[in-house]
Amino acid sequence: MTLPPPDPFLRLKARGARANPAGRFEPYAREAASDGWDLPEETRKAETEVSEEVPRSVINRVTSPDLGFDRSINPYRGCEHGCIYCYARPSHAWLGLSPGLDFETRLVARPSAPALLERELARRSYRVAPIALGTNTDPYQPVEKRYRIMRRLLGVLSDWNHPVTVVTRGALVERDLDILADMARRRLLHVGVSVTTLDAGLARRMEPRAPAPARRLAMIRALSEAGVPVRVMVAPLIPALTEPELEAILAAAAENGARAASWIMLRLPGEVAELFRDWLARQMPDRAARVMNKIREIRGGRDHDPRWGTRQRGEGIHADLVAHRFAIALRRLGLARELPPLDCAAFAPPAAPGQQLSLF
Question: What pTM, to 2 d.p., does this model score?
Fold first, then answer.
């Protein structure tokens, strides 16, 4: 895929991608071009647009052997954080939208998700297991402040005593500390906070609308002090770019109360590879070739390796070295442990109004 040139009349403020290539299922591509008239063109800002969707179901079944869960919920499609490396970008093509700028600016919200969730949990055939929230796009991205879908989802899960794991880098998670702390006390909740770099300048370019690294460490501390088990997620780890910070990120997270840690090597599926290469050429021209060479070394000579079992970590000497460094740092920092198991036995429908509570 070759990226089209950016629209010269579109002002891009705090956006990760600058191009808007057509999705892989689209028969036509569009490019901005002069109409030949000698008239000044008006510039316009790339604003965020949100549409609403009413899904038929909200719990997604997950069959990947690389993941430790079998179901997830995504309250939003697309993500305003604009992380240039986001592996979820190709999913926007299923909507007839671009994995580039559209992914960051044309979002889809699911306001009916909490009601649908309650209906699915009430089915007699439902069997409880932890639900993962935030596995595709961030449930605490800025638009959540207006829609509050995540808070209402947590309310349903709390009422049903349903175990859940949350993955985020959004500071809005602190808004829901009352629910999160209560669920954690009942052994129903884990939270993973993604920290990719401690360099605020790099983060601003790479993840333009996500909280700064110091803010994410403060999130870890706030969650930990509220009694929430927190895992720091060094994800993705970018060879020759953020990789040198691995130990420093883990140390900073442990100092702020993280109990466990995990890491995932950068993945560049589908359209993400070209978008990431374009970003590197613009933002890191002095090291772009080195970063891509390291990625291809880890991915068997390709930009991306989709195989189960290797796509999360990579393979080869360099990938093995990163895994070894990670294991040593975990032992040194006291992070080499699992978070406490979640309680699936307490799952039950909430008591109806006026219903007598059980003594046991």
Answer: 0.92
